[in-house]
Amino acid sequence: QTLASLQQTEHVRQLGVQQLQMQQTLIDAIPYPVFYKDQDGRFIGFNRAYEATFAVSRSDLLGKSVMDLEYLPMEDRKLYDAEDSHLIRTGGSASRIMAMPFADGKVHRTLYFVVGFARPDGSPGGLVGTFTDLDLADSLAGNGVATDQPGGGQP
Q1: What one-character-per-residue DSSP string does 75-110 give?
Q2: Residues 6+ apart with CB under 8 A from 118
Q3: pTM assigned to the model
Q4: pLDDT over 90 for what percent of the chain?
Q5: Which is nearest to 82 in space by CA: 120, 118, 114, 122?
């Protein structure tokens, strides 16, 4: 290869690294737990809110499946695993209100969302999920914390 070709290849690689860093920063800025899995249902990423919610480290969970998550009840793990496999295969989505144990030792009422995604060639790519703590939202609203202020903040 020529020097110009090698420089162009390195530039493209650096752009890819920058893009990945920006995407992780974006995901970490989301105040709700976010996780994503590969086509085999193994975790390939999390955000900081997920780590805080379950008092876990992403480095300890990367490459594991939901069946490895000891902080979740076994029955829940089996249900998640079956649903995730189906959604990854079909590219479907699911949402529901459900109880979920957090690291604080309490079971929280959450609004849970997951969606399967495809690779550019149409084959199953993986799954992205998030959830919000409805108990926290109810608590904030009950304590007089304004949760909807028109014109009060960035869009």
Answers
A1: HHHHHHHHHHHHHHHHT-EEEEEEEEE-TTS-EEEE
A2: 91, 124, 125
A3: 0.78
A4: 66
A5: 114
